[in-house]
Write a structure and sequence with these properties.
Blueprint (H helix, E strand, L loop, with lengths): L9 H4 L5 E5 L6 H12 L2 E4 H13 L10 H7 L3 E6 L2 E6 L2 E2 L1 H4 L2 H11 L2 H15 L4 E5 L2 H5 L5 E6 L2 H13 L5 H17 L11 E4 L5 H22 L3
Parallel strand pairs: 1-6, 1-7, 2-6, 7-8
Antiparallel strand pairs: 3-4, 4-5
Bound molecules: cytidine-5'-diphosphate.
The site of cytidine-5'-diphosphate has 18 residues, from helix 2, helix 3 and helix 6.
C-alpha cells in the first residue's frame, strides 16, 4: 500500500499502486467484469456508474421535474452521498443508508445520462472515485476512467459487444430467466438510445485494449483481463530498481 502524502494529486499519492481502467458502452459488462477481475487480483473495485446513479436517485427526491435539474440542484441533492467500503468494493450511501436498491431502477436509468452530462457533477464523481482509489490497487469501471479519471492507468480496457447481446445479458440478469425476442428488441432500443445520450462521455483511450465480448463468456473476458493485468504488474516489477 502507498503511504499517503500530504501533497499532490491522487495519481501522485498512489505512486506504487496499480490502476486497471475498464470502460465501455451501456451494459457491456463493465461492472460485473471489473468485480471479478478485482476479486481475482485482490484489488478494490470502484463502479463509477453507481455514483452517477446515486446522484440521480437523490435528485429524484427533490421533486423537481428532470428538465429543470441543474448542476447546483444535483450537487445539493447529492451532498449527503458517500462511498462506503463494503468488502473489497464500495457502495453509495445517502446519509448512511445504502442506496443499491434505489439506483438500478428504470426511472434512474432513464435520467442518469442527463445528470452525467453536467460538468460539475462529473468533477464531483471523479473526486469521489479518486479518493476511494487513493493508495490502493484498484479496478475502476465507467465511461471515461482511462481518459479522464485515471489517464495514467497501468492497464486500460474498452469493452464492447453487439447491442442485441448486451440487451439479452442485461435482461437475463434482471429477470432471472430467458428473455423473449420481443423483450430483447425493446431493451436493445433503450440501450441504443442511452448509448447516444452518453456518447460525449464515453471515450476509448488511445492506449486501451479493445475487447469485443459478444462471443466471449464472462469467465473468458475476466481471464483475458487478469492475464493482461498480470503481464503489466510483472513488467513493472521487472523494471523497478532492486
Ligand atoms: O452498467 P451500465 O452501462 O448500464 O451503466 P452504469 O455504468 O451503471 O452507468 C450509468 C450511467 O452513468 C451511464 O449511462 C452514464 O450516463 C453515466 N456514467 C458516466 O457518464 N461516466 C462514467 N464514468 C460512468 C457512468
Amino acid at each position: 500500500m502507498t503511504p499517503p502524502s500530504e501533497h499532490g494529486s491522487a495519481r501522485q499519492r498512489r505512486a506504487s499502486s496499480i490502476v486497471v481502467a475498464i470502460d465501455g458502452p451501456a451494459a457491456s459488462g463493465k461492472s460485473s467484469t471489473a468485480h471479478w477481475v478485482a476479486e481475482r487480483l485482490s484489488y478494490r473495485h470502484i463502479d463509477s456508474g453507481a455514483v452517477y446513479r446515486a446522484a440521480t436517485a437523490a435528485t429524484m427526491h427533490s421533486q423537481r421535474s428532470p428538465e429543470w435539474w441543474t448542476d447546483a440542484i444535483v450537487l445539493a441533492s447529492a451532498a449527503s452521498i458517500a462511498l462506503r467500503e463494503r468488502g473489497d468494493s464500495f457502495e453509495p450511501v445517502f446519509a448512511g443508508v445504502p442506496m443499491e436498491d434505489m439506483i438500478r431502477g428504470l426511472d434512474v436509468t432513464q435520467n442518469v445520462s442527463r445528470v452525467a452530462r453536467m460538468p460539475a457533477v462529473r468533477l464531483w464523481v471523479n473526486d469521489k472515485v479518486r479518493a476511494a482509489a487513493d493508495g490502493f490497487d484498484v479496478v475502476a469501471d465507467g465511461r471515461d476512467i482511462g481518459t479522464v479519471v485515471f489517464p495514467d492507468a497501468d492497464l486500460k480496457i474498452f469493452l464492447v459487444a453487439d447491442s442485441w447481446e448486451r440487451a439479452r445479458r442485461r435482461l437475463t440478469q434482471r429477470l432471472s430467466r430467458r428473455p423473449t425476442d420481443a423483450e430483447i428488441a425493446v431493451e436493445t432500443e433503450l440501450l441504443v438510445q442511452r448509448d447516444a445520450r452518453d456518447a460525449m462521455q464515453t471515450m476509448q483511450a488511445k492506449d486501451a485494449v479493445l475487447i469485443d465480448t459478444t462471443y466471449l463468456t464472462q469467465e473468458e473476458q475476466v481471464e483475458r483481463i487478469v492475464a493482461l493485468a498480470q503481464a503489466v504488474t510483472q513488467r513493472a516489477s521487472d523494471t523497478s530498481p532492486r
